[in-house]
Amino acid sequence: MPAIEFHEVTKVYRRRLAGQEVPALTHVSFEVGEGEVCAFLGPNGAGKTTSINILMGFLYADWGEIRVLGYEPGDVRAKQKIGFVPENFAFYKHLNAEKLLRFHLALAGGDMRKSAGLIRDLLFKVQLQGYEKLKIGKYSRGMVQRLGIAQALLSDPQLLVLDEPTSGLDPSGRKEVKDLIHTMKKEGKTIFLSSHILSEVEQICDRAIIINKGRLVRMGSLNELLGTGDLVEIVADQLPAEMEPVLAGWGATIERGVQGVRITLPAARKRELAEKLWAAGCDVVSLVPVRSSLEDLYMKLVGSGEPV
Amino acid sequence: MKIWTIALSTFGSFLRNRLLIVFGVVFVCTVLLMMTPLLGAKAIAKMGNAQQAQVMVLGIVAAIMFFVSGTGSLLAAWCAADAVASEMKSGTILAVMARPVKRWEFLLGKYAGTMLLMAVYVVMMYGLSWLLAWIGGERIHSTAWVLLAYPMVRYAVYSALAMALVTVLHPLVTMGITLIVAVVALIVEPTGQAVTGHWKYVRWPLWITLPSTSLLSEERFLTITHASLKQAGWLEHLTTLAYGLDYAAVLVLMAMWSFHYRALTRD
Fold this sequence. Notes:
The structure holds 2 protein chains of 2 kinds.
Chain A: E1 4-15, E2 20-32, E3 37-41, H1 48-56, E4 63-68, H2 76-79, E5 82-85, H3 97-107, H4 115-125, H5 141-153, E6 159-163, H6 171-186, E7 190-194, H7 198-204, E8 207-212, E9 215-221, H8 222-226, E10 231-236, H9 244-250, E11 253-257, E12 260-266, H10 270-279, E13 284-289, H11 294-304
Parallel strand pairs in A: 3-7, 3-8, 5-6, 6-7
Antiparallel strand pairs in A: 1-2, 1-4, 8-9, 10-12, 10-13, 11-12
Helix pairs in contact in A: 3-4
Chain B: H1 2-15, H2 18-47, H3 50-90, H4 92-97, H5 103-135, H6 144-166, H7 171-187, H8 199-209, H9 234-261
Helix pairs in contact in B: 1-5, 2-3, 3-5, 3-6, 3-7, 5-6, 5-9, 6-7, 6-9
């Protein structure tokens, strides 16, 4: 059973007084499997936060079917198994970390007798130990974000929904959050993550869903999305001079360096080249498909608004 | 348990709410200022004209208690409206509602937190009425539970009204409507005088529809002289309080229904 199912979800914001209708999502369909780390990408205003709000039961869709861990959004049985970090996690400023986590644990129906140990462990996990008694109003942005993650982990969730978890964090803060997500991934949790930092998404996620202007533009595993298979890169220890005109005819590019010769050519010619190199007594050091970066793909898709 | 947790958190937020603290300070200053003529009247009594002074003292005490009691209704309405609206405005509601909490549980928790604050207010009001009576050289003969239960029910009605309105309207609009309802409810109270013209066709429906402030007023029973002691039987208390509680319950249910269908994102 998929952890998240969106089927033909449509949401229109209506400004009744102005008589305006702003479509936020138009027939968006996707699934996130159990144990996956899935990135949810798109520019500002693409409909990411609207989708997450619908998923969490904060907003109702106008059309479509949504299932979260097999239940309707907002169902308490689903919410018992979800950890959620909203974009710009807001908190009760008068509380300290310990009291805030105790409050959330009580709402989650957790065992309050074990709260002290659990809270201590979680604050240690997000590196906020020593700040338990400090009022949250005095926390830095990064500390607040880490506290947000700690509260999401309180009830040992099966599904984590993270809306821009690294926004506003400095590089070290981002690394800490990234490491935390890696840890949770290893624990087998399903993670649905919205982010603008594509290089991080590329490192953390298994799959990506890209939306733009409320429409799904592309989804798939990162290998499917980035490893297009059009080009391969072969590194050989040497390249006989007589092969260079042949390669030029295939449209290959050649770069010579200290580690050897780097040849980029159409994937259809890879076997032929490898065999020619071996026949000529050259050693093939590596042969890898050329992956475009997620950023390249994102710019291409979001720029063109290409449908799925 | 969840409702109680939300109620306690709401109550804690009220105690740290700057606007409420300012309100408390202004309120205490106003009561102290109103006590100046009371103490003046006491001084006159000492000088000889005891009967005239007694009338003055009672009038002043009644005025202070009317102010305190009336302010309580608006305070209850504002607290209830703010308890919901501020959570939505700040976005704290998102983390709370991501927990296994039903929407009605959240709203009931907010309502219970407001009533907790109003319970403290009512106890303080009761203490103030004792203090004023003591300064006036009298003592309150009404039973304590009447002076505690009636304002609580009235505040329950006004906070439920504000909560129902704030689920669909801006908090300032909510307060405006609540204030209008309170004033109109006072105007349409039956006075014993004959009503003529089209007004009678408007007055009765309004009297039936709007919460009756005077019916639920503890001032009906707040007497500090034996001469004006108003007796009321159990049945009268029961029906009056049931009327108020029923009104509040209907409004809370309407608030829950409306809250169930609204978006929880920031306003």
